[in-house]
Design brief:
This protein is mostly helical. It is about 50% helix and about 5% strand. It has a 3-stranded antiparallel sheet, with no helix packed on it. Helix 6 runs antiparallel to helix 8.
Length: about 300
């Protein structure tokens, strides 16, 4: 028994499900891309075993999850891929009379909760001081690092910032987060200065092309060496190279700077809901992970702050 194939070489059941996500549920392009990738992996796994989607039962789905666990995928990836498979089978069960959902009793793996790998404030200072050149690229890279740490922005949010999103006089920047949700956050003086330096005569104008390829490139705050909008991969590389220069290596990623921004703000007394707003978290439970502290730090704070922590 073989399944009909859609236009993207996927079974028609998958194509119908993806269409439902796009049209009926309004899922974003990035979300649809993730579902497509996950479901293609599932279909390929079934194909290798001579199975089709409608023949999959609970034992089949459990075997698939176990195969994912046995590979080198992170627990969070296994969870996401099962969510995609579960969504597909739930859709088929709802849309087709007599079709059961084989994923209903399959347990979703729980990724282990770990503390965010925040840098120390001294490490951040060393990182932010590592770009010392005066050429246009150095000015750009300094601004990228200052904005990432100063705002807690995601790398994709930073690469998407346009000139119209900046209000340097007020020290504000507009960011577009997941689901195109808009938020306006403060920049801080160091990020402001770095942006003024980058946008000045010896920065961004020196990377501007004679003729813009698109309006989007012309509006971009951060440009690549060819005069186009700096994409997230290019911005990611800027962070990695700066980390390598000060010995942080693989410890440093753009998301670690985001972790560090949130952790340091909370360390200095920021309200958790303020940090939630800054980071653009839909739920405060997502932000609460930053309040987890090591036993050593908790003990140090307690000893310093509680009036009856010691006998004097």
């Amino acid at each position: 028994m073989s399944e009909g194939r859609g236009t993207d070489d996927l079974p028609v059941e998958v194509e119908d499900f993806l269409l439902s996500l796009r049209v009926e549920r309004g899922r974003s392009a990035n979300t649809l891309k993730a579902y497509t990738t996950d479901l293609r992996a599932y279909v390929d796994w079934l194909d290798e075993r001579g199975l089709v989607i409608r023949e999959a039962d609970q034992e089949t789905v459990t075997a698939y999850v176990n195969a994912l666990k046995a590979g080198d995928r992170a627990p969070s990836s296994v969870k996401r891929m099962l969510v995609s498979v579960r969504g597909l089978h739930r859709f088929l069960a709802e849309e087709t009379e007599g079709v059961a959902d084989p994923t209903q009793d399959v347990e979703v793996p729980k990724p282990p909760k770990g503390l965010p790998k925040a840098l120390s404030e001294a490490e951040v200072e060393r990182l932010l001081g590592s770009v010392t050149g005066t050429d246009a690229v150095a000015r750009r890279d300094r601004a990228i690092l200052e904005v990432l740490y100063g705002t807690g922005a995601r790398i994709g949010e930073l690469s998407g910032v346009s000139l119209s999103d900046l209000d340097l006089d007020a020290g504000l920047v507009r960011l577009f987060g997941k689901g195109a949700k808009e938020r306006i956050v403060p920049l801080g003086q160091f990020a402001q200065r770095a942006l003024v330096d980058w946008l000045g005569d010896h920065g961004r104008p020196l990377l501007e092309p004679e003729q813009w390829r698109s309006r989007d490139d012309a509006d971009a705050v951060f440009l690549n060496r060819r005069g186009g909008r700096l994409q997230r991969g290019g911005a990611w590389l800027v962070v990695r190279q700066a980390g390598d220069a000060v010995g942080l290596g693989s410890r440093l990623t753009p998301h670690v700077l985001r972790h560090s921004c949130a952790t340091h703000m909370l360390d200095h007394g920021a309200d958790i809901r303020t940090v939630q707003e800054l980071l653009g978290h839909a739920s405060i439970s997502t932000t609460q992970v930053y309040t987890l502290v090591s036993g050593e730090r908790l003990q140090a704070v307690y000893q310093a702050a509680h009036p009856r922590a010691s006998a004097g």
